[in-house]
Amino acid sequence: MTTPSTAASTRGFTFVVLAALCWGTSGLSGSIVARHSDLGPLDIAWHRMAIGAVALLVPWAVTRRRAGPLPPVGRGTAARLALVGAGLACYQLAYFAAVATAGVSIATLVALGLAPLLIAVGATLLGSGRPDAPTVVALVVALVGLVLLVGVSAGTGTGTAVLLGALLAVGSALGYAVVTLAGGGVPAGVPVTLVGFAGGALLLTPVALVAGLRLTADPVALGVLLYLGIVPSALAYALFFTGLRSVPGAVAAIVTLLEPLTATALATLLLGERLAPLALVGGLLVLAAVAGLYLRRLRQPVPAAGA
Question: The whole model's pTM is what?
Fold first, then answer.
């Protein structure tokens, strides 16, 4: 017999899976936009942030009256929100630049495989000052996988592009880690995702204008840009945070590994990208390190209330 809590957990797990699958289409979407227009990584990142902000603002404004009052925003919370916006802007810009330079597979496996480990290390350093042994082991395994993934791919004739793309992807992972670590301390009730996307769009706007913001009238590019701003951005984040209400964070972190796997599969099927077998092993090592780290945390006992 299905209990309400079981049904909620199953529904939440489904939401997290759908969010990860949506996120996995981001790199492919950026590549399609670039092929059908002259938009560069900065233009694509700005469009995603701006469209995502509008898509998040509309439902928030509609439901605002029924929600309770916003909690007070002190200097600490304001600083965290500023970091979320800056991190999102850097994350998006570096990611799409990595996709344009090294391809969807390399960019996504490096950025989204490394990001959870950076988050784990950052959280440990902010909490106790020294990573524990399993975290160090996971980081070493991930770095070995990263070296295999990038090193083997760089030896296929496009070494400079792969290395530059990998560095950009590492920058993207750092931006994502900042978003996660900074956003975790924001009080409940504050629309973190909305503020982050709006703040990121505002930060990217002057940079894009100075660089020469490009728009497009191509119907395919416009349609994919709308999809990029609504589905892998506003909708996916809404699904993810709704799912987290009934799914443990450790489980959600493992499920989101579907994102780089989805991106790599789509790049292979639709863009013709191919990873060398040893490079694929490297990518799997990165993902295995993250999964092992979070599985260990999942087995740890939950502290009693008030502890």
Answer: 0.77
